[in-house]
Amino acid sequence: MSINVTDIKQLVYCPRVIYYTYVEPVPRKVSFKMEYARSQHYELNQKEKRRTLKRYNLIEGQRLYGVTVSSDSLNLIGKLDILIDTENKNGQRYYPVECKDTDSKIHKNIIYQLAAYAMCIEEMTKTSVRKGYIYIIPKQKAYPINITDDQKNYVRKITSMIKKIIYEEYYPEPRSKKRCWDCEFQRYCSDCDLPNLNEMKERNKELMRELLGFK
Ligand code: SF4
């Protein structure tokens, strides 16, 4: 069984999400946040097909959408939002672009996911990938991200952890209980740390401001 690249993002968010996905699957609800993200991704792909690559500060190249990439050595598979093929003969040829649907800061889980895509591309194409982009949909802006050896090593550690959870049916500790308040799995974690009702209301307001772009 292959691990999906999105599992890397999930593990960094909370390792228990992996447990509830593979070891003891539980019904998942599609939240408003997830539905919104899906519609934004769809719109982006439609619009992006008509645009140039200038905003990425790259020379023109072929844009490939929803490309399946994989790594046998890491046992990883995933679907990359955009792969740019610059056809460069010297230097980096392929650039992964991962799209993000909120304008909150770029969290590490997204960067590790991008690094994992880069590692898959390296293995498939036998070329080096040292830079990728995270495209923030609400800002319509791509941020260059350097992909480092440390990030790649961390991705290796994360994939080992994911395998441990799945194959040894290991129930992990949460990474941070601060994330429990808007987690779709909170009813399955008896030890999650939920804030009081007023804090929840405030955080929900923050989320709406973030999603809808209010200041
Ligand atoms: S509720 Fe908390 S501990 Fe449980 S999966 Fe979500 S973030 Fe992790």
From TrEMBL:
GO terms for biological process: defense response to virus. Residues 5-189 form the DUF83 domain. Gene3D superfamilies: 3.90.320.10. Mg(2+) or Mn(2+) required for ssDNA cleavage activity. InterPro entries: Cas4_exonuclease (IPR051827), CRISPR-assoc_prot_Cas4 (IPR013343), Dna2/Cas4_DUF83 (IPR022765), PDDEXK-like_dom_sf (IPR011604). One of its GO terms (molecular function) is exonuclease activity. Its cofactor is Mg(2+); Mn(2+); [4Fe-4S] cluster; iron-sulfur cluster. It comes from the Bacteria. It is an enzyme of class 3 (hydrolase). The keyword Methyltransferase does not apply. Keywords: Antiviral defense, Exonuclease, Hydrolase, Iron, Iron-sulfur, Manganese, Metal-binding, Nuclease. The keyword Protease does not apply. Its EC number is 3.1.12.1. Belongs to the CRISPR-associated exonuclease Cas4 family. PANTHER family: CRISPR-ASSOCIATED EXONUCLEASE CAS4 (PTHR36531), DNA REPLICATION ATP-DEPENDENT HELICASE_NUCLEASE DNA2 (PTHR36531:SF6). CRISPR (clustered regularly interspaced short palindromic repeat) is an adaptive immune system that provides protection against mobile genetic elements (viruses, transposable elements and conjugative plasmids). CRISPR clusters contain sequences complementary to antecedent mobile elements and target invading nucleic acids. CRISPR clusters are transcribed and processed into CRISPR RNA (crRNA). This is CRISPR-associated exonuclease Cas4. It comes from Caldibacillus thermoamylovorans.
